[in-house]
Amino acid sequence: MKKILDNVYLVLALRVGFGVMFLFAGVPKIVDPAAFAIGVDNYHMLPNALVNLFAIALPWVEVAIGVLLIAGVFTEAAALVSLVLCVMFTVALAQAITRGLDISCGCFSVEGGEKVSPVLLLRDLLLILGSAWIMFFNRGRAGLLCLVRGNR
Amino acid sequence: MSINKTMIQAIILAVASSVAGLAFNAVRPDGIPFVAPDRVNVRVDFEDTSGPVDLAGAKRLFDEGAAFLDARTEEEFARGHIKGAMNVPYHKADEMEEKILMSVAVDATIVAYCSGADCHASDLLARALEDMGYEKVRVFFAGWPAWEAAGYPSGKDENAAPAPLFSPMGTGE
Fold it and tell me: Does B93 contact A111 at a Cβ distance shorter than 8 Å?
């Protein structure tokens, strides 16, 4: 099992996959911050004073870790941020579901898109596991800096 | 790499990218205010002829012949809706764009509503409508519950299943 988890190509594929996913999640929110602010507000979790600040900042964090995960630079730190974000998303989603909020996820699309549902909760849990996998098993391998230096 | 070092890097990464985002928002022409003015108006680009409307306002617009769009699900719509309203579940707004454009004139006043205070589907629908080119889009936040309680004109699908009093096991949402 440990051997599989430690496979450099698997970790690389996962890392790049997560990176692309975060770019897809972040860019539409940067393009239309007003729509994303509504999406954040819909979760009824943040006080009004923080909704817009969060909606402005979060997509940039997503894009930053997306780029770093793909490039393999500061990978462990990016994976840790990814882990924290996914835990946050899971909590938000779980409270929305338990409160019966009829809202859209706001995960990858700022308008409409997926409605919150237990399936999305499962997806978030898998993303938490994936983030942890990258964080503990990447071990600085297969990054851009390594390629420049000519080793794995 | 030590966990401590990773944590410090992660914090720097999160703070730095957040600051970059806030800075970019401050200089971009379509940036949003750092603090939303109030709960129902996170959006900043409502025209004078659009924005939230209360029960009395919604009734007045109804009497004036405004188009009502119901952002709730098909089932909820079938159980009861504002008379003459068109059902556009907000997550289907994009695929229904053509149908909406055929049925509602671009210069018409549109009132979007859903099921009340905790529901923002109407807000999302209103936004989608504005993207389609409609300029006079109002959001009736009190929505269907207030309209029904006021006894204003309503319609429903006679074949609709009655609202469940409780969710039967296994089919609950």
Answer: yes
CATH number at residue B129: 3.40.250.10
**Residues of B (51-110) whose Cβ lies below 8 Å from A:** 72-73, 90-94
Residue B171 pLDDT more than 50?
no
What was the ipTM of the complex prediction? 0.88
In a domain, B8, yes or no: no
**A contacts of B94 (beta carbons < 8 Å):** 111-112
- Domain range for A35 is 2-137
Three-state secondary structure of chain B: CCHHHHHHHHHHHHHHHHHHHHHHHHHCCCCCCCCCCCCCCCCCCCCCCCEEECHHHHHHHHHCCCEEEECCCHHHHHHCEECCCEECCHHHCCCCHHHHHHHCCCCCCEEEECCCCCCCHHHHHHHHHHHHCCCCEEEECCHHHHHHHHCCCEECCCCCCCCCCCCCCCCCC
Q: Does B147 fall in a domain?
A: yes
Q: Which domain holds residue B61?
A: 51-155
Which residues of B are less than 8 Å from A72 in CB distance?
none
- Across the range B18-32, mean pLDDT stands at 92
pLDDT in the model for residue A113 = 62
Within a domain: residue A144? Answer: no
State yes or no: pLDDT of B41 exceeds 50.
no
8 Å CB contact between B73 and B92: no
Q: Establish if B110 belongs to a structural domain.
A: yes
Asked whether A102 and B115 are in contact (CB, 8 A), the reply is yes
Specify the pLDDT at position B44.
34
For the packed helices A33-42 and B121-132, what is the interaxial angle rounded to 10 degrees? Answer: 160
Q: Please count the structural domains in chain B.
A: 1
Question: What's the total number of domains in chain A?
Answer: 1
